[in-house]
Amino acid sequence: MVNKFSISFFYLLVVTFFCQKSFTQTQIGHTNENKFKQLYEEFMTPNNYRTASGAPGNMYYQQKVDYDMDIVLNEKINKIFGEAKITYHNNSPDDLTYLWIQLDQNIRKSDAPALLKNPSSAPEVEVASTFLKKYLIEPFDGGFNIEYLKEIDGKKLDYKINNTMMLVYLNKSLKSGEQLEFKIKWNYLINNHVPERTRSGFEYFPEDDNNSYVIAQFYPRLAVYNDVEGWQNYQFWFDGEFALNFGDYNVSITVPDDHIMEATGELQNPKEVLSKIEYKRYKDAFKSFDKPILIVTEEEARIKEKTKSEKTRKWKFSAKNVRDFAFATSRKFIWDMMGVKVNNKNIIASSLYPKEGNPLWEEYSTKVVAHSLKTYSKYTFDYPYPKAVSVHAKNQGMEYPMICWNHGRPDKDGHYSDAVKFGMISVIIHEIGHNFFPMIVNTDERQWGWMDEGLNTFLQYLTEQEFMPNYPSRRGPVKKIIPYMSGNQDFIAPIMTNPENVYQLGPNAYGKPAAALNILRELIMGKELFDFAFKTFSKRWMFKHPIPEDFFRTMEDASAVDLDWFWRGWFYSTDVVDIGIKSFQRFYLSSLPGDKISEEFLKYGYSPQQITDVIYMISEKDKVFNNEDFKLEQIDDSIHDLKQMIKDEFSTQDNKVLKKGKYFYQIEFEKPGGIVMPVIVEFNYKDGSKKIIKYPVQIWRKNENSFKKFIVSEKEIVKIKIDPYEQSADVNLKNNSWPREEEKSDFDIFKSKIRG
C-alpha cells in the first residue's frame, strides 16, 4: 500500500490535469456579460418616491385632475361639442409654470404627421377598395377645434398646439400643493371607426340608416407629470396608447331622445332618461345574480330603429378616482344587466349591442363580464368600481374605465362559428380585464405597452382557462410564442421597447410577456409564490403609476427568487431558449485507469499498481475497455469493493441514507440559445419507469454554454428528454432527446395518415 502522500499526490495530479491551461500571449479583458449579472445598471437608483422593494416610497406623489363636462353629440352632422371645467391639483414637490394637455383627436387631422410615419412602396397587387382608401380618397379631416381656454375668472390662457400636444402657458406659477381651475371649449367631427379600425367613432348601418357610437378621447386630457419623466408629453402616434391622471368626473351628455347610453361612472338620473318599464327592469337587474335582465329588448330596439327623434335627452354620469371617461350611445342598442358578487360587494355587469350582435351577445357577453370580474379579482384585488360594461362594435377591442368596446358578430342569419364565438369571449375578457391593468394599476401605455397588454393578456389566459376546460386560448400558452421568438431577428424587438418602435406589436406586447409570465409561474417560481408576488404588486400599485422596475422588484421582493437573469433574457433581449443534449456517455467502475489518467501516470512516472484505495471510471471510448485485462464482469467486483469501502468508512446509521447505484452516466448539456433557463430532464428507464429532475437555472452561472452532470442510477437509462412537457418555449426540439428522435418528413407524416 502506498503512503498517504502518494494518494494525495494522485489527487493533485488529477486536479492539475483537468484544470491546467497555458496562455502564450496577453489576453484582452472583458466587461461582465454574465447572464446572472444584476440589473443595477439598467435600473434607476431607488429613492423616496420609489423604493428598492418595488413599493411606492414615503414621498411618492401623483397629480389629480377633476373634470366637470357638458357634452353634446349632434347625430345629424356627426359632431361633438364640449365644454369643461378642469381642476388641476399640483401634488408634486415642484412649482409648475406650464401644463401639457393631450389632444389625441388631432391624429385624425388630414395633415397629421402620424399619417406619414410609415414608409410605403408601389403595391404589385392590392384590393381595389383598399387601394382607393389608401391612395385616392382624401383623408378624413378631424381633430380638435379649440374655441377658448381661460381661467375660471375668465382670464385668457395662452397656448401652443404641437401636433397631439397642447402647451398651456400659466399666467402665474402653480405652486406645489396648489390647484388651478380653468375652462376649455372645443368641438370635432366624429369619424367612422370601421374603415381604419380607430378606437373611437361611429359605425353606420345602411339597412336602417342608423349609427352606433363608441366615443373616447373626446376631450382634452391633462398629461401626466411624475417623478420619472417630468411631463409625459410623448406624441400620440397611435400604437402607444395613453398615460393619464386619476380624478373625479361629472359628465352630462346630450344625445337624441331615443338613444340608449352607457358610460364610465354611475348613472345619476335613470328616472329622467328611462321609460317606466325600462326603469323597473333597470332596478330589478341590481337584484338579479343568476342571469341578465333585458332593460331594452331586441324587439324594442328594432322599433326604435324605424324612426329618429328630433328631441334630445341629457344623461348624467359621475365617476370617482378614474383615469379616463368614455361612452357609447345609439337607438339601436339592446341593453341587459345583472348583478355580480365579488366577495362582499355587489357590482353590475352590463352589455349594449345592436340586433346584429344577436344571438351571440345576448347569450354570452354579460356572463363573460361577470366571470372576468370574479377571476381577475381573485388574482389581483377586489374590483373597486360599481360596474363594468361590454359594448358591441365592429372590429373593435378597446378599453376604458368601467366600459369597453368588443367585436364578434354573427352572420346575418344569426349563425356563427366557434372562431367567432371564442374570439368574442376572449376580447371581452381582455377588455374587461383592462379595468385592472391599466385603469386601476395605472401603467404608462405610451411608453411601456407590455405593462398593460402583457400583464392583462397573462390574466386573460388564466381567466379563459377557468371559463371552460381546454379553452382555445390564442395567447398565453408557451408553445404559441415559439414561432415569433424563432423568427427573423431583424424584425424582433425586446419587450422593453416603446410600442411605436416594435415590428410586431401583438407578439411583442401581448403574446411574449404573457408566455414569459406563464413560464415564471409554472416553471420557475411556482404558482403559490408567483400568485402572492403578483397580488402584492397589484395591491401596492392600485390607483398609482408603476413603471417596469416596480414590477420587477416587487416580484423578487415578495418571493425571495432572484429574477434578474429572467428579466434580462426575456424582457431586455431578443434571445431565445434552446437547450439540448450534447453528449451522453456510460461509465464503468474499473481497477484500471482510463486513457487520460494513464497518460498522466506515464508523464509523471507512475503506474496504476502504485495507487490504491481509488476508483477509476472508464467509458466505452477508453482503450482499456477493449483490453483483455478488462472485462465487464469486473463491474460487480468493483461495486462489491466499493460497498466494502463504504462499510469501513461509514457507520451503520450513515449507511441507511447512502444511495444505491450500479449504473454510471455522464450527460453534457448545451445551450445554443441565449436565454439561461432551468433544465427539466425526464429520465426513462429500462423497466418502463420515469423520473423528472429539475436543475436550477444557476447551473449555468459559471459556464453559460454547457455543463456536465454525472449520474449514479439504480436503473438503466434508455432515454432522456429535456423539457418533456414543452414548458420553456424551446425553439429547437431536435436536440432535446437522447437517443436523437428520428424526424419524420411531411411526406412520412402524410403516408402515416393515409395508412391510418
Task: Walk me through the structure.
This protein has 756 residues and is of the alpha+beta class. 27% of the residues lie in helices and 26% in strands. The strands form 7 sheets. Strands 4-7-2-1-13-17-15 form a 7-stranded mixed sheet. A 6-stranded mixed sheet has the order 16-19-20-21-23-22, with helices on both faces. A hairpin with a 2-residue loop joins strand 22 and strand 23. Helix 7 (360-379) packs across helix 8 and helix 12 crosses helix 13 (548-557).
| N-end to C-end Cα span | 68 Å
DSSP strand (E) fraction?
25-35%
Structural domains: how many: 4
Shape: elongated
Q: Walk across the major sheet and give the strand order.
A: 4-7-2-1-13-17-15
Helix percentage range:
25-40%
Please tell me how large the radius of gyration is.
33 Å
Give the low-confidence spans: 1-5
| Strand elements, count | 31
The mean pLDDT is 90
In terms of quaternary structure, the protein is single chain
Largest sheet: 7 strands, mixed
Tally of separate helices: 18
The structure class reads alpha+beta
Fold topology:
Elements: H1 4-19, E1 64-74, E2 79-89, E3 96-102, H2 128-136, E4 145-151, E5 159-162, E6 165-174, E7 179-189, H3 193-196, E8 201-205, E9 210-215, E10 221-222, E11 225-226, E12 230-231, E13 247-256, E14 260-263, E15 266-267, H4 270-273, H5 276-285, E16 293-296, H6 298-305, E17 312-322, E18 327-330, E19 334-342, E20 345-353, H7 360-379, E21 387-392, E22 397-400, E23 403-406, H8 418-433, H9 449-467, H10 482-485, H11 505-525, H12 527-540, H13 548-557, H14 564-570, E24 580-590, H15 595-604, E25 616-619, H16 634-649, H17 652-655, E26 663-670, E27 679-685, E28 690-695, E29 706-713, E30 717-722, E31 737-738, H18 746-755
Parallel strand pairs: 1-13, 20-21, 21-23
Antiparallel strand pairs: 1-2, 2-7, 3-6, 3-10, 4-7, 5-6, 8-9, 9-18, 11-12, 13-17, 14-18, 15-17, 16-19, 19-20, 22-23, 24-25, 24-26, 26-29, 27-28, 27-30, 30-31
